Amino acid sequence: MIGRRLLDSKPLCGALGAAGLFCVLEATGRTGLISPIVFPLASTVLGRAVELATDADFLLDVVSTLGAWALGLLLTVVIAVPAGFVLGTLPRAETALRPILEFLRPIPSLALIPLALALFSDKFDMKITLIVYAATWPVLMNTLYGLKDVDPLAKETLRSFGFGPLSVLWRVSLPSTAPFVATGVRLASAIALIVAISVELLAGGSDGIGVFLIEVGGSPDAMVYIIATAIWAGVIGLVSDSLFVLAERRIFRWHTARTEVV
Amino acid sequence: MLEISNLTHTYGSGPSAHNALGGIDLTVAEGELVCIVGPSGCGKSTLLRSIAGLLRPTGGQVVLNGSPVEQTPDNLAVVFQDYSRSLFPWMSVADNVSLPLRRKGMDKKQRKEAALEALEQVGLEGAGAKYPWQLSGGMQQRVSIARALAYRPALLLMDEPFGSVDAQTREELEDLTLRVRGHHNMTIVLITHDIDESVYVGDRVVVLSKAPAGIVGDLRVDLPGPRDQITTREHPDFVHLRAEVGRLVRGMRSQPASASQ
Hints:
Number of domains of chain A: 1
CATH superfamily of chain A: MetI-like
Number of helices of chain A: 12
Radius of gyration of chain A: 23 Å
Structural class of chain A: mainly alpha
Oligomer: heterodimer
């Protein structure tokens, strides 16, 4: 009975899955199914990951990546949300720019690294630019989508009380679109982290998780380091995503409560 | 206070054009409660949106208190049928009610007081801190009515206001409307497709024909007041009138010996 109840808790159930995978991996190494020389033992990797948590060099690199990530994300919001509102409220502008957007959108930002290397002398500027480029799309598209979803009757209601178009935009369109923007920012945050680490890895630089990966690549137990670092990158992504989900649920309770009823 | 003269409206142009209003002439006196009834899709909502200034009619004129309606007038409020879309889910009930009062230049405290007073009038004291989606349909429509009341409009427009609630709630809201109408000497134009409702609530029932809508009947309702859901509805005059309105809505000629004047 207690076991059943434990499985009802989602995080606990997920943790159990992770522990299960750990045991399977450990067992394949211990039994010699996969030689620990070819692929390190799960316990070795986990031990290294724990060590990394107190490794000053590694922590400085994490802080550096997170700094670029946060700044990139902030700039993305500052650029993409107003841009979305301009395009969403001026249909002509959207029609004019749509083909360009649809052309740029599928270009992977990593394919732009050579161009960015030629354009920027500073690696940090380059990293931020590529993050903003990649993270803009989900925010911009979600803003546009949210604006299209604003209930015409809600706008008409405010209009019937004599409010002008700007008031309607501010008091109805903006709050009504906010949950969609938030989802866009959450998706963008995952992309921003991926791009930040990838750019560090491919273009180098002075610090960052990607740079750390390059540096440890030369050490004799490179594989253990690389997997342990990857685990931390995953943890950072998971934590930030969970925090965004939590914040969305709290701030936009009216949105989730309503859509759950409907 | 409301004069509509030769109002016409056509949606679109060319062969696909839809002629919704075919020349409406209507005068509503101050303090009157006029029900406009007609078959579905006859252009009732087009008429209401023209009066509210939400739609620019293609012909004719709407004059409210002496000035022609070109944009949404200041002294007018609308209660829509779809309360769940018309109320703002991100705001509390009290904030929903007080929001339009910003147009009146009232400060925060005055707005709050006015909102609480209006909520009390519709029997929702204590619900101010809740969110619209936490209330039942009938209560949400009460909030919309409170929002309109707080605004103290000279003219209150109601577009099928009780069309989305159950029969019991509908009766409660009809009586609520009759109760609050006297508060601020409001003039009310209520649009409905429910014949019984138009006779029960109205001082006057205006019947529209199928699109393009024209007025095919204008009946005064002289029922003994105060109206009561049971006794009024069994009153012989009520029965007569609803039959008369029903005939007009169905496009039949009115009977010579009818209760209309």
